[in-house]
Amino acid sequence: MSSRGFALAPPAKNVVVYRNGDPFFPGRKFVVTHRRFLTFEAFLNEVTKSIHAPLAVRNLYTPRQGHRVAELGDLQDGCQYVAAGFEKFKRLDYLHHGRKELRGTRNSEGTSGWLFFRPFHSCRNTGSSHALGCFYCSVFRNGDLLSPPFPLLLSKSSPLQWDALLATLTEKADLRSGAVNKLCRLDGTQVSGGEELVNGDYYVAVGNEEYKKLPYFELLVPQDSVCRMPWYVD
């Protein structure tokens, strides 16, 4: 058989993609192969879904200089990129997520590109979440009666961007079904926005599957810890 029949496929590339204008998004990892993505547009469509972009992703940029990536072959293994729609590249410190947006920085429309919530680590080691205007929630994993709920501290002083919250829940919950697509109360009703979250309440992170009504609270929350507020979050 001719050696041409054994031509090696291009090696896979591992890249991390951030959301344009979102300094708190932790980035999403992608394995790019020609078998999985035949075109650059197919890859951008997958990025749109995976990072929960509010609008379709149509451009990728390098995170520091903002150079535009024109095609799939331009992606470099082990590198990071910023996903954007048709808006301009927003210069932020994407590689150190969790950094606060600089005070006074606004885009040409006079508003921030995204609405943010401060990550829970901004409220740790304080001795009082209320002193910093933070509030606390506990989140179960849908259908999981083996793992205890994980804590989530949110800041009342910053508007909460729902897609950014779902991305953080996806990272912390690590659901078998994949990304967290919705947050439910213990009775199964869905939370549709940050204004509906209640301080001290319990919620369930759910993926694409249906909500599984189980005795999460009864089985996974020790009774002596119900009234206690944990101030330090790993």
From TrEMBL:
Gene: Dcdc2b
Keyword Repeat: yes
Stored Gene3D superfamilies: Doublecortin domain
GO cellular component: microtubule; microtubule organizing center
Alphabetized UniProt keyword annotations: Repeat
Designated name of the protein: DCD2B protein
Lineage: Eukaryota, Metazoa, Chordata, Craniata, Vertebrata
Transmembrane segments: none
InterPro entries: Doublecortin_dom, Doublecortin_dom_sf
The Doublecortin domain, residue ranges: 13-95, 139-217
Gene Ontology biological process terms, A to Z: intracellular signal transduction
